[in-house]
Amino acid sequence: MTLTILQITAIGILTHVAFMHGENGLCHWLTTSSLVWGGKLALFQLYPDIWFMRKRLKTRAEPVQGVPVVRVCPPDHATFMNLLTFIDALLVAIWILLQVGVLVVHGKQCYAHAPLVSTLAVVLLALALLYYLPTTLLLIFRRSRESRSDGGDNIEIGPLPQSKVDRIDLVYYIPPPAPAPALAARPSGPVAGLRRFGPTSRGLSATSDDNNNGEWEKSFQRMPRAFLRIEKHEAQCAICLDEYTAPPRVTGEEEGAIPGSATSASAAADAQGVPEPLRWLDCGHVFHKRCIDPYITTKAAKCPTCRAPVKVQSKGRK
């Protein structure tokens, strides 16, 4: 394909040189577009293909160490190649539109004075359409299938009934302990992947890390749901803008209180300083139950922060 287009480009250039003067100048655009197409092949097609092939061979030879970080500014080589691929598709679309326009407007004149240039331009356009049109349609079809099959029947975009919303995890907010350098260095964003603790974890055997973490959870009044540690600067509902309230600290005899005796779902929305249950969405963002439930059941089953579809799981997260 590439060699054929390069040959057509070379013949078009030689033909154009023989018909440079007079009315044959109408074919100037067709020859110029052939030159542009040849440069595009060298810069946007051959070079990326060689780079991707070398990268694939290198990836197979060397195991991946950790998660690669793609820089945006200044762009690294991988980011530049992805940008080059996007620009390539844009230039192809522009080139095809301009080539069709010139052939429609000046096709008869060019064919009358330089039939070879006009014929080669038509052949070049046909080859480009035969190559890029099926590829583009196949890519669109594949992406549409992936978007439909991603997540199966668990992802729903429209409003959800309350029965499905009730299957989304509920947690209670607690701040991290003061000597927590690992948590303090965690970047802002969704609180996915954090450990959760609850009343059921007490009395179970645990490692030294679990024992240290459990001591911090035991210092709070026991709640009917699991605890979720959230940094202070992230402990705010993005819907009502109210800060999350942690359960009261307990000591000694208070530690054996009955779970859930300090709060109720009806009084949580109105009482100041009383901990409220939080919905922990699959994307990692957390909201007040009283705020996110009406949003999901009446507007859309999407996260108000990142717009990710709400994923309803048959069982809670582990």
TrEMBL record:
Residues 237-307 form the RING-type domain. It comes from Ganoderma sinense ZZ0214-1. Pfam families: zf-RING_2. The keyword Nucleus does not apply. Keywords: Membrane, Metal-binding, Transmembrane, Transmembrane helix, Zinc, Zinc-finger. GO terms for molecular function: ubiquitin protein ligase activity; zinc ion binding. The keyword Transmembrane applies. InterPro entries: RING_finger_E3_ligase, Znf_RING, Znf_RING/FYVE/PHD. GO terms for biological process: ubiquitin-dependent protein catabolic process. The chain crosses the membrane at residues 83-105, 117-141. One of its GO terms (cellular component) is nucleus. This is RING-type domain-containing protein. It comes from the Eukaryota.
